[in-house]
Protein backbone atom coordinates (compact mmCIF):
# COMPACT_ATOMS: atom_id res chain seq x y z
CA UNK A 1 0.00 0.00 0.00
CA UNK A 2 0.87 3.62 -0.15
CA UNK A 3 2.17 5.52 2.81
CA UNK A 4 0.29 8.56 4.01
CA UNK A 5 1.47 11.96 2.85
CA UNK A 6 3.54 13.75 5.48
CA UNK A 7 3.35 17.52 5.69
CA UNK A 8 6.51 19.49 6.43
CA UNK A 9 6.98 23.17 7.07
CA UNK A 10 9.25 25.67 5.32
CA UNK A 11 12.07 25.09 7.85
CA UNK A 12 12.15 21.36 7.06
CA UNK A 13 11.94 22.17 3.35
CA UNK A 14 14.91 24.55 3.62
CA UNK A 15 16.93 21.98 5.56
CA UNK A 16 16.22 19.37 2.87
CA UNK A 17 17.29 21.83 0.16
CA UNK A 18 20.58 22.52 1.97
CA UNK A 19 21.24 18.81 2.42
CA UNK A 20 20.52 18.19 -1.27
CA UNK A 21 22.84 21.07 -2.20
CA UNK A 22 25.71 20.12 0.09
CA UNK A 23 25.40 16.63 1.52
CA UNK A 24 28.60 17.00 3.53
CA UNK A 25 27.51 20.24 5.22
CA UNK A 26 27.57 20.08 8.99
CA UNK A 27 24.59 20.85 11.16
CA UNK A 28 26.42 24.00 12.27
CA UNK A 29 26.91 25.18 8.66
CA UNK A 30 23.27 24.54 7.78
CA UNK A 31 22.12 26.29 10.96
CA UNK A 32 24.26 29.33 10.16
CA UNK A 33 22.94 29.57 6.59
CA UNK A 34 19.30 29.21 7.70
CA UNK A 35 19.76 31.42 10.78
CA UNK A 36 18.76 28.62 13.16
CA UNK A 37 20.54 26.96 16.06
CA UNK A 38 22.51 23.75 15.43
CA UNK A 39 20.31 22.02 18.01
CA UNK A 40 17.13 22.86 16.05
CA UNK A 41 18.67 21.70 12.75
CA UNK A 42 19.92 18.45 14.29
CA UNK A 43 16.53 17.77 15.86
CA UNK A 44 14.71 18.52 12.60
CA UNK A 45 17.00 16.17 10.62
CA UNK A 46 16.40 13.35 13.14
CA UNK A 47 12.64 13.92 12.89
CA UNK A 48 12.80 13.85 9.06
CA UNK A 49 14.64 10.52 9.35
CA UNK A 50 12.05 9.14 11.81
CA UNK A 51 9.21 10.18 9.48
CA UNK A 52 10.93 8.33 6.64
CA UNK A 53 11.47 11.49 4.58
CA UNK A 54 15.26 11.25 4.74
CA UNK A 55 16.10 7.66 3.81
CA UNK A 56 19.86 7.89 3.52
CA UNK A 57 22.79 9.75 2.01
CA UNK A 58 24.70 9.20 -1.21
CA UNK A 59 28.19 10.06 -2.30
CA UNK A 60 29.47 11.05 -5.70
CA UNK A 61 32.67 9.36 -6.80
CA UNK A 62 35.17 10.78 -9.26
CA UNK A 63 35.94 7.51 -11.06
CA UNK A 64 38.54 9.15 -13.28
CA UNK A 65 40.73 9.92 -10.24
CA UNK A 66 40.55 6.22 -9.33
CA UNK A 67 41.54 5.14 -12.84
CA UNK A 68 38.14 3.57 -13.47
CA UNK A 69 36.14 3.96 -16.68
CA UNK A 70 32.37 3.55 -16.83
CA UNK A 71 30.50 2.09 -19.80
CA UNK A 72 26.87 1.36 -20.55
CA UNK A 73 26.06 -1.50 -22.87
CA UNK A 74 22.82 -0.96 -24.80
CA UNK A 75 21.63 -4.45 -25.70
CA UNK A 76 19.06 -4.95 -28.45
CA UNK A 77 17.49 -8.39 -28.37
CA UNK A 78 16.43 -10.55 -31.27
CA UNK A 79 12.87 -11.89 -31.47
CA UNK A 80 11.63 -11.75 -27.86
CA UNK A 81 8.91 -14.29 -28.60
CA UNK A 82 11.34 -16.96 -29.83
CA UNK A 83 11.36 -20.33 -28.11
CA UNK A 84 13.76 -20.53 -25.17
CA UNK A 85 14.42 -16.79 -25.06
CA UNK A 86 13.29 -16.45 -21.43
CA UNK A 87 15.75 -19.04 -20.22
CA UNK A 88 18.61 -17.46 -22.20
CA UNK A 89 17.69 -14.01 -20.89
CA UNK A 90 17.76 -15.36 -17.35
CA UNK A 91 21.20 -16.84 -18.08
CA UNK A 92 22.38 -13.45 -19.35
CA UNK A 93 20.94 -11.73 -16.28
CA UNK A 94 22.75 -14.19 -13.98
CA UNK A 95 25.96 -13.67 -15.97
CA UNK A 96 25.64 -9.91 -15.41
CA UNK A 97 24.87 -10.30 -11.71
CA UNK A 98 27.91 -12.50 -11.16
CA UNK A 99 30.34 -10.52 -13.34
CA UNK A 100 32.77 -8.51 -11.18
CA UNK A 101 32.70 -5.48 -13.53
CA UNK A 102 28.91 -5.06 -13.70
CA UNK A 103 27.51 -2.27 -11.53
CA UNK A 104 23.87 -2.35 -12.66
CA UNK A 105 21.59 -4.49 -14.80
CA UNK A 106 18.35 -2.90 -15.96
CA UNK A 107 15.56 -3.98 -18.27
CA UNK A 108 14.50 -1.02 -20.37
CA UNK A 109 11.24 -0.06 -22.03
CA UNK A 110 12.58 1.81 -25.04
CA UNK A 111 14.66 1.36 -28.15
CA UNK A 112 17.01 -1.16 -26.55
CA UNK A 113 16.06 -3.91 -24.12
CA UNK A 114 18.79 -4.34 -21.52
CA UNK A 115 21.29 -1.88 -20.10
CA UNK A 116 24.11 -3.25 -17.95
CA UNK A 117 26.67 -0.75 -16.66
CA UNK A 118 30.32 -1.71 -16.30
CA UNK A 119 33.36 -0.32 -14.51
CA UNK A 120 36.68 -1.23 -16.10
CA UNK A 121 40.32 -0.20 -15.96
CA UNK A 122 40.71 0.30 -19.73
CA UNK A 123 38.98 0.35 -23.08
CA UNK A 124 40.69 -2.95 -23.87
CA UNK A 125 39.08 -4.56 -20.82
CA UNK A 126 35.67 -3.33 -22.00
CA UNK A 127 36.33 -4.71 -25.49
CA UNK A 128 37.18 -8.10 -23.95
CA UNK A 129 33.91 -8.08 -21.99
CA UNK A 130 31.97 -7.05 -25.10
CA UNK A 131 33.50 -9.89 -27.12
CA UNK A 132 32.64 -12.33 -24.31
CA UNK A 133 28.99 -11.20 -24.31
CA UNK A 134 28.79 -11.46 -28.10
CA UNK A 135 30.29 -14.95 -28.06
CA UNK A 136 28.13 -16.31 -25.25
CA UNK A 137 24.82 -14.66 -26.12
CA UNK A 138 24.84 -14.11 -29.90
CA UNK A 139 21.75 -16.32 -30.18
CA UNK A 140 19.58 -13.74 -28.37
CA UNK A 141 21.39 -10.45 -29.04
CA UNK A 142 20.75 -8.59 -32.27
CA UNK A 143 23.00 -5.61 -31.63
CA UNK A 144 25.05 -3.96 -28.87
CA UNK A 145 25.98 -0.30 -28.58
CA UNK A 146 28.40 0.86 -25.92
CA UNK A 147 28.62 4.30 -24.38
CA UNK A 148 31.55 5.60 -22.36
CA UNK A 149 30.34 7.63 -19.40
CA UNK A 150 32.86 10.41 -19.11
CA UNK A 151 31.11 12.62 -16.59
CA UNK A 152 28.37 12.10 -14.05
CA UNK A 153 26.40 15.08 -12.95
CA UNK A 154 25.06 15.51 -9.47
CA UNK A 155 21.52 14.29 -8.97
CA UNK A 156 19.18 16.74 -7.29
CA UNK A 157 16.67 14.79 -5.30
CA UNK A 158 14.98 17.80 -3.78
Task: Summarize the structure in words.
The chain has 158 residues and is an alpha+beta fold. It contains five helices and four strands. It has a four-stranded antiparallel β-sheet. It starts with 9 loop residues before the first helix and ends in a 9-residue tail after the last strand.
Q: What is the terminal separation in angstroms?
A: 24 Å
Unreliable stretches: none
Q: How many separate helices?
A: 5
Using the alpha-carbon principal axes, give the shape. Answer: elongated
Sketch the topology as an H/E string, one letter per element. Answer: HHHEHEEHE
Sheet with most strands: strand arrangement:
2-3-1-4
Radius of gyration: 22 Å
How large a portion of the residues is in β-strands, by DSSP E? 15-25%
By secondary-structure content and strand pairing, the structural class works out as alpha+beta
- On the 0 to 100 scale, the average pLDDT is 90
Name its key features.
5 helices, elongated, 158 residues, 16% strand, alpha+beta, 4-stranded antiparallel β-sheet
Amino acid sequence: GRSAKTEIDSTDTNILKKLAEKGKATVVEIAKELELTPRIVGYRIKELEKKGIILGCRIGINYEKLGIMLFKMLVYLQDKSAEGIRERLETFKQWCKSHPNVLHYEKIFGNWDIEPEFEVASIEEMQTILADVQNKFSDIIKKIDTIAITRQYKFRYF
